[in-house]
Design a protein that fits this description.
- With 261 residues, the chain is α/β, with parallel strands linked by helices.
- The chain has helices spanning 4-10, 25-32, 50-62, 76-85, 98-108, 130-146, 156-160, 162-166, 178-184, 194-210, 221-230, 240-256, and strands at 15-20, 38-42, 66-70, 89-92, 148-153, 173-176, 213-218, 234-239.
- The longest helix is centred in the middle third of the chain and has 17 residues, at 130-146.
- 42% of the residues are buried.
- The model has no long low-confidence stretch (mean pLDDT 97).
Length: 261
Amino acid sequence: MSNKVKEKMINGEKTLGTFLAFESAAVAECVGNTGVDYVIIDMEHSALDKSICTDLVRAAELAGTVPFVRISDVAHGDIQKAVDAGALGIIAPCLRTADEVKRLVDYAKFTPIGQRGFGPVRSDLWTKGMSEKLGVAGYMEYCNQRLLVLPQCETKEFLENIEDILCLEGVDGVFVGPFDLSISLGVPAQFDAPVFTAAIERILKACKAAGKFAFAFGGNTEVCKQRLAQGFDSVACGVDAILLTHAYRQMVAEMKGGDLI
């Protein structure tokens, strides 16, 4: 599967994603059929684990949607299993320094950029996919170009090091976690606080200067529209569990607003 998200953004187009927290391939398939460009399988803030990751990646692919995975930690096993399953984007939380981000790149990308291990895996149809067509060296280059590595900017320390981080080979951009970033800056969920708005400006400036992509989470469509207008290349809007809850609340409110129930 090609990384249509990366291709669209290289062409100057904005992209839209959302988070998946449900342990359900059916939900992933349904969300994938809505027109979003990508889904983020969330291994950090959910009960999802590595055993279900492949099924969710497969469901997204079948729906024609690019699968990303947010790992819970920068660990070899978590990253290796996600990319081997077919994730085309790796989002990593809780990072602070360029050295930590370099370790992320090492696990996610093949040599000469990183140190990812090669083996018979699903994303390569167990060696009957692109490695058979391109050879091992060509396949590794293909994977490095296709995979987006996106460390999250959600700590004060990451923000202070963002220019150095974006200079690292193999880092394709950053993903802004606004809630944790605001907390780290001492203004929890105060997204109009000067220190937070200055942080957003610095992130966008650093991404533009480095020629890297800027992603951000938004809890609703109004926030996401604001981020795109500010200059972000992509937004991930909402989480499946929250969006489902809101949809049902609206239905119940509409049904109970009349005289029939």
